[in-house]
Amino acid sequence: MSGHRKPRVFLLGSPGKQGIGDVITWLRGELEPHIEIVGSAMTDRLGDVLAARPDVLVVLGGDGTLLGVARAMGERQIPIIGVNFGKLGFLAEFGVEELKDYFRSLATTPMVFSERMMMEVTVRHRGDPPQTHLAVNDCVIQAGPPFRMISLAVRVDDELLTEVMGDGLILATPSGSTAHNMSAGGPILMPGVTGIVITPLCPHSLTHRPIVAESSAVIEVTAMRANPGTTVSLDGQVSLPFDKDDYLTARRYPQTLKLVAPPDRPRWHTLITKLNWGQPPTYR
Predict the structure, then answer these.
(1) Among 52, 87, 181, 195, which one is most buried in terms of CB atoms within 10 A?
(2) 79 and 46 in one domain?
(3) Distance CA 39, CA 188 (A)
């Protein structure tokens, strides 16, 4: 976008969220004086979105909707404004009323982007052709039924790091550090950090601790022992089987997810207000 040209905006709603269609209709009327709306849809198919060539994509749903859209765009990433209709709204930070005020302010205030690292994950399973997918938050290997302990060999840049025996392993981006990784005791990374978190899931060891690999690292995980239900899960939305001797590689994806950040909001706002991070105990 340059000069004072109105931004070209596409409104994309989650088909699984009740009432979003009505909100999109209302938003078109409210926003058209301030922006150029090049299309709207209630779908997760992005052909029409990419063909419209918007400057910004407004995604109405929740974090899950936004994750799916970001993966579907692949190398053709468009800046996203996430409008939260879900539960937490870590990535989808805007509210509907806040969105209206934000577009009004664009005549005098430039757009601020938060660029988020993504991972490219390739899974090789039983001699099948390799499957490559994007992960915005994380790649999680989980033991699965019958829930016996599994064993995973972890290599970083072709060097054996460790063999983890336990319930599995999490590979997380900085954006995903506040998701499954955080619940498993992994570190919280600021969104602008570039690195891959490696967090064992319930390791049968007192010495395995989460670590952060540099963003240039290529991480390879091989199933030394697995269950019939052992699975690789990407962002909690794409699931792939993971049998003995299967392996995956994870590396930084060349493109970044570009999220439009609400103006004048402190960088730790979401962590403190939604997860109550660092809040002191209540004394009575």
Answers:
(1) 181
(2) yes
(3) 37
- The rounded Cα 66 to chain-centroid distance in angstroms is 8
State the first-to-last Cα distance of the chain, in angstroms, to the nearest integer: 54
Report how far apart, in Å, the C-alpha atoms of 135 and of each of 61, 151, 251, 259 are.
Answer: 19, 23, 10, 15
Q: Does the annotation mark 63 as catalytic?
A: yes
The torsion angle over the Cα atoms of residues 173, 175, 181 and 183, rounded to 10 degrees, is: 180
Rounded Cα distance between 7 and 74, Å, is 22
Instruction: Give the count of domains, the chain.
Output: 2
Question: Residue 129 — φ and ψ, nearest 5°?
Answer: -55, 140
147-166 pLDDT tens trace: 999 999 999 999 999 999 99
Same domain, 244 and 134: yes
> Of the listed 55, 63, 138, 167, which one is catalytic?
63
- Give the structural domain span for 180: 119-252
The length of the chain is 284
Residue 272 burial (CB count, 10 A): 12
Distance of alpha carbon 139 from alpha carbon 172, whole angstroms? 6
Beta bridge partners of 163: 153
CA distance 200 to 218: 17
Quick: pLDDT tens for 41-57: 987 678 889 899 999 99
